[in-house]
Specification:
Layout (H helix, E strand, L loop, with lengths): L2 E5 L6 E8 L4 E7 L3 E2 L10 E3 L18 E5 L14 E2 L4 E5 L2 E4 L1 H4 L7 E2 L2 E2 L2 E7 L2 E5 L15 E3 L1 E4 L6 E4 L3 E3 L4 E8 L5 E8 L2 E9 L10 E5 L5 E12 L4 E11 L3 E2 L5 E2 L2 E7 L23 E7 L3 E2 L5 E5 L2 E5 L8 E11 L15 E6 L52 E5 L1
Antiparallel strand pairs: 1-2, 1-33, 2-3, 2-32, 3-31, 4-31, 5-6, 6-8, 7-28, 8-27, 9-12, 10-11, 12-13, 13-14, 14-24, 15-23, 16-23, 17-18, 18-19, 19-20, 21-22, 22-23, 25-26, 26-27, 29-30, 30-31
């Protein structure tokens, strides 16, 4: 018997899954775009692009239907109306564009107000965007006024964001390991059972300490603990849902916990594989492009806030060629005869699976590669991208030295003052 594991992803393009024995640590799969065929009568003349509808390797949370990424071929130097075999994509004519999208935070969605201001920071929404398929948080221009937009030059990974119905109960003295070396400690509940003294740590060192009220008469904003950086960008926050004070024990219940990682700064001229950063505004050549997604912001307009890259060298589309773009993203041309160009966009992803098979069960078994055309299985054109980050696309740089805050809390009512992938579904096949 051979038991295999696979990754099931719903989208309209082709998924190629490298099936590994379940005792293996890594599972590799490849995502392929729709096919560009210059001889197909339905292929538009002039420029061409892939978005999350035609390439499921791009970021696309189905709910609420956001999308941000476009790979755009500008056909400026070729005499043919469609891009054909042997044509050249001139330097600066292959664009990778990612436009940030706003989405309500879990905490913000729990409140009916138009804003959710805590310590001069609006936690109602945040800006998100894809960066070569992986989701990133984008720092706004003004954290107190999200309508000011965002120049997407400062991005970070979301390390933790709990679901709407997730509650974390913590007893006094308990530490919650959050992610990335961060933890939250409940130091003590006050004698009235209305306030909690919390401490935020990183790598075991105290970063911040605060007293947060859980009084039911207060607003949600007043019951929210926020730690922000020197630029007023949220780093961690959580909401005190309830506090219990008993004779022998006391505990606190938290909701809507959020934590981001270190900020990576992107600058003009930075190189990412075949691309250089060109700027942070949609170029005129892409004005009016209506790309994937059901959100209101999925039309590009000249000057919109967006991360814009372009190719740093000419690319000739010869037959049977693999063209590396960045990371695990690449173009592939088929072995065809001129003028027919058949071209696809690919992404290779790897996830780690737990070893869960009895010893020796799969010895000597070879891996199999299975190609699944999910579109033929009755799937509609709506696309769901891979949300599993096969690895961090960017290596985050520290957003400055984190100051260690010395505790100097004076709080009447406290008896003692002393200094916490989505995965894809895995399916097993037996034969």
């Amino acid at each position: 018997m051979k038991r295999m594991t696979g990754i099931i992803i719903a989208f309209s393009a082709i998924l190629i899954m490298t099936m590994m024995p379940v005792s293996a640590s890594d599972v590799t799969y490849k995502i392929r775009s729709s096919v560009y065929d210059s001889t197909d009568s339905s292929t538009s003349a002039g420029d061409f692009y892939w978005d999350a509808n035609s390439f499921s390797g791009f970021w696309f949370p189905i709910k609420p239907g956001l999308s941000s990424e476009v790979l755009y071929f500008h056909n400026s130097v070729n005499s043919s109306s469609a891009i054909q075999l042997g044509d050249k994509i001139a330097e600066g004519d292959l664009y990778y564009v990612s436009k940030p999208q706003t989405k309500k935070t879990k905490l913000g969605a729990s409140d009916d107000g138009a804003t959710f201001i805590v310590d001069d920071v609006d936690l109602k929404k945040y800006y998100l965007m894809g960066f070569f398929g992986s989701q990133y948080l984008v720092m706004p221009e003004d954290s107190s006024d999200l309508s000011a937009g965002c120049k997407p030059d400062k991005i970070a990974k979301i390390l933790l964001e709990t679901d709407d119905d997730t509650k974390k109960q913590m007893f006094s003295g308990e530490e919650w390991d959050l992610a990335g070396g961060w933890s939250l400690v409940v130091q003590q509940v006050d004698v009235e059972g209305n306030k909690v003294w919390v401490q935020l740590n990183k790598a075991g060192e105290e970063i911040d300490t605060s007293i947060v009220s859980g009084d039911m008469d207060l607003t949600k904003q007043e019951r929210t603990y926020l730690y922000k950086d020197a630029d007023d960008n949220p780093v961690f926050y959580c909401y005190v849902d309830s506090i219990f004070r008993g004779m022998d024990t006391d505990f606190v219940v938290f909701k809507y916990a959020f934590l981001r990682g270190d900020i990576t700064t992107i600058e003009d001229g930075d190189a990412y594989g075949a691309f250089d950063i060109e700027g942070f505004a949609v170029p005129a050549v892409m004005d009016g492009i209506d790309y994937a997604g059901s959100g209101s912001g999925t039309v590009l307009h000249t000057g919109d806030d967006a991360l814009v890259m372009s190719n740093n060298a000419d690319i000739t589309l010869n037959p049977n060629k693999i063209i590396d773009l960045y990371g695990n993203l690449y173009l592939k041309t088929e072995d065809t005869s001129a003028p027919c160009l058949k071209m696809t966009l690919w992404k290779t992803c790897t996830i780690t699976m737990s070893d869960a098979v009895p010893e020796n069960e799969n010895e000597g078994e070879d891996e199999e590669v299975i190609v699944v055309n999910l579109a033929e299985e009755g799937n509609e054109a709506q696309t769901s991208s891979s949300t599993m980050d096969e690895s961090d696309v960017l290596s985050g740089t520290n957003d400055g030295n984190v100051a260690v805050v010395q505790s100097s809390v004076v709080a009447p009512g406290f008896e003692l003052l002393v200094g916490l992938l989505g995965l894809f579904c895995a399916s097993r096949f037996g034969s």
